[in-house]
Each structure stands twice: as structure tokens, then as C-alpha cells.
Structure to design on (210 residues):
């Protein structure tokens, strides 16, 4: 596997290279200091995975993301844990979002493996931020378009999760068992083509805003 590390901080790039060199499945590592360099490097290096910072000179990660996501699995790796930035990255094609300070070799390796396997990864603290954003009160709106793909109960459960409620809270509110709530959530994941609670909430919120 070939990995392209994109960050304007030389020390961060060096640190990530050391981590990657200890991951068995990684054969080659290349570096770029901004989005412009990343797009150019991706053409010749042809990475399987790109670890992409958000804020960089000339061209930031969110600007470079659409081009890079066509060629490789992109994992945002940054110190920016803003919920709107996370949502923009995931909607823009990123397969994962990790925040510096919560990462070790095992976390990076697991994230790469999950994304290469078709999954989506939100690192520690990221999913919580997405849920908090989803729980922010909004103006009255019509039915979520995604509800048409779900049963009425599945939609009710997912809507409650998008408001920031835990499975226990949803169970109490809707007079269900926690296990039944979990089953409804899992069924909704399959129908929506997602793999986790955070992914489902992101998709639900995106549909609400469309």
C-alpha cells in the first residue's frame, strides 16, 4: 500500500512517516506540503491512501479533497475538530476524520484498514462533535427525504439519534427496549448504506439541509 502524507508542518509529516513505516501493509510513503503539491504528487505517486491536513497555505485540504478522493481513500488528519469542518470533509468525499492528539500507530493503522475496506472512520472526539452539531435546535422543517427509504419507526429512531439522544434515551422516549432501538438503528444503516451511527447522522443532517 502507498500512502501520501499532506501537511504543511514538516515535523508532523516526519512523525506520520515514522508511524506509517511501522505499519506492515504500508510499502511506500510520499509527502506534500499543501493541496497543490498533493494533487501533483498523487498523479505520479498514485497513492492508495492520502492523510490530508485541513488548513494549509496555497490550497487547503478541503479544496484539494475532491481531486484526491477520486484517486485514493482520503483520511483527514488535522487539529481542526470543528463540527462544520468535519461535516464538509465527509460530504466532500473523505473516508475518515482523525484529530491529532488522539492518535497512535494502532489508531492510524486501524483507520487506514477500515477506509481501504470501504468503511468510514471518525476518530475519538469527532463523532461526539458531529452529534452535538446535530442536536443544535433548528427552525421547523418538513420530513427528511431519507425517511422514504426507512420504516416509520426506523425514521423516528434515527431522527432522535440526530437530535443527540442516546439509545437509552430513545428507548425511554419511544417506549422501546434499548436492544430494539439498536436493531432499528442497524436496520437503518443497511438501508442507507452506512456503517456507523456517526455516518447515519451525517447523512440524515445532509438530507435535511438539501
Amino acid at each position: 500500500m502507498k500512502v501520501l502524507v499532506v501537511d504543511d508542518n514538516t515535523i508532523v509529516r516526519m512523525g506520520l512517516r515514522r508511524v506509517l513505516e511501522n505499519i506492515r501493509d504500508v510499502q511506500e510513503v510520499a509527502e506534500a506540503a499543501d493541496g497543490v503539491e498533493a494533487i501533483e504528487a498523487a498523479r505520479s505517486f498514485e497513492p492508495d491512501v492520502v492523510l490530508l491536513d485541513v488548513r494549509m497555505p496555497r490550497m487547503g485540504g478541503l479544496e484539494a479533497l475532491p481531486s484526491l478522493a477520486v484517486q485514493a481513500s482520503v483520511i483527514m488528519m488535522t487539529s481542526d475538530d470543528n463540527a462544520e469542518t468535519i461535516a464538509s470533509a465527509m460530504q466532500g468525499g473523505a473516508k475518515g476524520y482523525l484529530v491529532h492528539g488522539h492518535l497512535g500507530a494502532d489508531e492510524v493503522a486501524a483507520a487506514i484498514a477500515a477506509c481501504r475496506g470501504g468503511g468510514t472512520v471518525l476518530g475519538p472526539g469527532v463523532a461526539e462533535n458531529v452529534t452535538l452539531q446535530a442536536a443544535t435546535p433548528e427552525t421547523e422543517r418538513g420530513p427528511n427525504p431519507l425517511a422514504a427509504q426507512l420504516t416509520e419507526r426506523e425514521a423516528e429512531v434515527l431522527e432522535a439519534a440526530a437530535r443527540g439522544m442516546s439509545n437509552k434515551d430513545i428507548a425511554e422516549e419511544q417506549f422501546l427496549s434499548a436492544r430494539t432501538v439498536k436493531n432499528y438503528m442497524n436496520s437503518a444503516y443497511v438501508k442507507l448504506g452506512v456503517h456507523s451511527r456517526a455516518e447515519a447522522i451525517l447523512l440524515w443532517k445532509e438530507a435535511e439541509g438539501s
Observations:
- DSSP finds ten helices and six strands in the chain.
